[in-house]
């Protein structure tokens, strides 16, 4: 089913917000939300909590902590070789699909090759160590270095990460307390979990449900892999097709929501690295031109906020036991009405993220 009318960036924005649970907070269990979103970026341990708070009505950190402690969700390197929080059912099937990107040649693999370390031997040795007990990368590199002293320990540890699905075990990733990343083999950590079968076709369907309408390049950008065009072509008879304003072909699930461009969109605060900012080859549906550079922070992205559905600035939360300050930095001057909306949502964020603080402060710095 092809629609000859192009979808504007604003129409794509409203569709994306609807799929991402950002037009209105939903009454949805955290585990169901994590699976719907095909995982949540979790390089920053608290990012997933903020990401769910901004999407779910009545969200509190404790249920997600219980899911982590109960091994129903895990933090693992997946899409784009970055740490994601995903359900236990999705962990290994997703890892199998994105493994080619994670195992892609790197400076670490070049160092191992120069030192004569075979991948198969490293995988066996590394897996045995993380199945004995969770290990930090430093511990893992030091132990493997006893067998391969001519190789850089970091290259050895990263080799295990590339070859073995490693989950970061609690307390890493908890809201109430933290810890250094210690890693276990996903197969051992999730023993007894029945994986949810996932083919490339299934990944495309789930991606479209959470991020569509989208192009083949968009889906490949999200997953960090190539070769998904064949899946799109197999699915073409059951998908709706559209064009964007530049004439590019977009695919979608026929019954997925595509709200009108005039649909209202509330102010929303997004955590750092949120997938909504990273999962399309062309990002004008969420990022106005020139704003990506304003979000960049070394090898990451600053937390951002949305006004009328589009990124309009960044925010920073500084908190201690007694005091918390939320600093909001818009890219452009704000109208009085928008400023009030940001302040209202900012106070809700403070109530969530700084519970227990004796004093809080909200500052809009422009």
Description:
The N and C termini lie far apart (47 Å). It is built from 15 helices and 15 strands. It is globular. The protein folds into 2 domains: 265 residues, no CATH class; 78 residues, no CATH class. Helix 8 packs across helix 9. It has a 5-stranded antiparallel beta sheet, with helices on both faces. A 5-stranded mixed beta sheet has the order 9-12-13-14-15, with helices on one face. By secondary structure, the chain is an alpha+beta fold. A hairpin with a 2-residue loop joins strand 10 and strand 11.
Provide key terms for this protein:
366 residues; alpha+beta; 2 domains; five-stranded antiparallel sheet; five-stranded mixed sheet; 15 helices; 19% strand; globular
Summed over residues and divided by their number, the pLDDT gives a mean of: 95
**What best-fitting shape do the alpha-carbon axes yield?**
globular
Q: What's the total number of strands?
A: 15
The helix-strand sequence is: EHHEHHEEHHHHHEEHHHHEEEHEEEEEHE
Q: Specify the biggest β-sheet.
A: 5 strands, antiparallel
Radius of gyration: 21 Å
Percent of residues in helices comes to 25-40%
From the N-terminal CA to the C-terminal CA, the straight-line distance is 47 Å
How many individual helices?
15
Q: Give the neighbour order of strands across the main sheet.
A: 2-4-3-5-6
Structural class: alpha+beta
Short description:
The protein is α+β, with helices and mostly antiparallel strands and 366 residues long. Helices cover 39% and strands 19% of the residues.
């Amino acid at each position: 089913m092809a629609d000859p009318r192009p979808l504007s960036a604003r129409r794509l924005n409203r569709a994306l917000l609807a799929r991402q649970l950002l037009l209105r907070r939903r009454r949805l269990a955290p585990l169901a939300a994590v699976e719907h979103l095909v995982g949540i970026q979790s390089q920053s341990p608290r990012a997933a909590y903020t990401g769910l708070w901004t999407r779910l009505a009545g969200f509190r950190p404790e249920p997600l902590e219980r899911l982590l402690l109960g091994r129903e969700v895990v933090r693992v390197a997946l899409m784009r070789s970055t740490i994601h929080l995903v359900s236990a059912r999705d962990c290994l099937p997703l890892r199998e699909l994105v493994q080619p990107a994670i195992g892609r040649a790197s400076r670490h693999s070049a160092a191992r090759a120069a030192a004569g370390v075979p991948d198969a031997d490293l995988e066996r040795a590394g897996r045995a160590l993380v199945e004995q007990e969770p290990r930090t990368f430093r511990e893992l590199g030091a132990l493997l270095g006893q067998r391969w002293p001519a190789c850089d320990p970091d290259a050895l540890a990263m080799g295990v990460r590339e070859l073995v699905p490693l989950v970061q075990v609690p307390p890493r990733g908890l809201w109430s307390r933290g810890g250094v990343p210690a890693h276990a083999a996903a197969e051992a950590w999730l023993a007894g979990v029945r994986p949810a079968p996932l083919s490339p076709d299934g990944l495309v369907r789930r991606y479209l449900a959470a991020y569509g309408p989208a192009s083949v390049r968009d889906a490949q950008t999200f997953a960090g892999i190539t070769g998904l065009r064949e899946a799109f072509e197999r699915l073409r008879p059951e998908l709706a097709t559209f064009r964007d304003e530049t004439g590019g072909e977009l695919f979608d699930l026929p019954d997925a929501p595509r709200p009108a461009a005039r649909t209202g969109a509330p102010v929303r605060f997004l955590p750092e690295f949120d997938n909504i900012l990273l999962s399309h080859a062309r990002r004008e549906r969420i990022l106005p031109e020139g704003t990506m550079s304003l979000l960049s922070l070394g090898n990451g992205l600053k937390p951002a906020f949305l006004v009328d559905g589009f990124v309009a600035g960044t925010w920073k939360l500084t908190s201690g036991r007694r005091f918390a300050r939320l600093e909001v930095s818009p890219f452009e001057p704000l109208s009085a009405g928008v400023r009030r909306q940001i302040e209202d949502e900012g106070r809700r964020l403070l109530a969530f993220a700084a519970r227990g603080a004796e004093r809080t402060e909200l500052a809009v710095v422009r």
